[in-house]
Amino acid sequence: MRLAGQSYRGRFAPSPTGPLHFGSLVAAVGSYLDAKSQNGKWLVRIEDVDWQRTVPGAVSEILTALEGFGFEWDEEVVYQSQRAEAYLNAMNVLEQCSLVYPCTCSRKEIADSSIRGVNGPVYPGTCRNHPPQGKKSYAIRIRVNDEIILFQDRIKGKYSQILSRDIGDFVLRRADGIFAYQLAAVVDDAMQHITHVVRGADLLDSTPRQIFLQQALDYPTPEYMHLPVVTNLQGEKLSKQTNAIPIDVKDALSLLVKALHCLGQRPPAELLQGDVSSFWQWAKRNWQAALVPG
Ligand code: GLU
Ligand code: ZN
Predict the structure, then answer these.
(1) For a tag site, which of 118, 139, 207, 224 has the least CB within 10 Å?
(2) Is residue 126 pLDDT above 60, yes or no?
(3) Nearest atom within ligand 1 for CA of residue 210
(4) pTM of the predicted model, to two decimals?
(5) What is the CATH number of domain 85-173?
(6) Would the CA dihedral through 248, 252, 255, 260 be positive or negative?
């Protein structure tokens, strides 16, 4: 099911594992401009589903930074930490279709008995075939199949996976009770009626899993556009793990212009003489998704 003809609703969905860094700024700028250039809505969703990784203070740091950079979001910010009931409901639907099963395998057991897929070990299906006994805590996995999942990314073009070969049965809820990003993102994109997902290309290989869940849950599939990932001089993705430097709102204008360059846009040099509001005026008028490098 496609969402053709509906009015544009996009989102930016940072995980509050640290302050906003330049890589996330590029994703924010790309998703914002793509939405605003089409008179769309742009929503902010805080992906704090994994509360163990949430850094105290990061949420307000991120929101303050976004404000300082001149982003204006529509509607109230959604927090995944408050959405457990919706995720549980979705999991129950999948359970009624006999698509999920409990798994007690340890990380090590899986690593030892698996072949590598596109995103780590392909779960060999141990607990699918031999349901675990006893009361040990367990994760919940979804049963995938060997159909091709294909979608047309607006930048990357056609991308496909066979989940049974490339990913394996994946986790929807971990043994510690935390819902997986894949499930939470799909449920929330549907709840927020997101028509266009614009995010970093590091999530390209998650998209077939998300489409699979959308189909199983009878949700529409949005359009996808995966933006280039910003790397440091060592070629590593900028992230909290590689100690990316947080961005300073004092440098907002020059960082925004730099972000536009990363997105293949051609801002005139004079933009640097203006301010953040003249920057956004130019950027919203001149955004061209087709210029974003693949
Ligand atoms: N929370 C994810 C991140 O910060 C983004 C998820 C998404 O856009 O689907 O990398
Ligand atoms: Zn298992």
Answers:
(1) 118
(2) yes
(3) 9
(4) 0.95
(5) 3.90.800.10
(6) positive
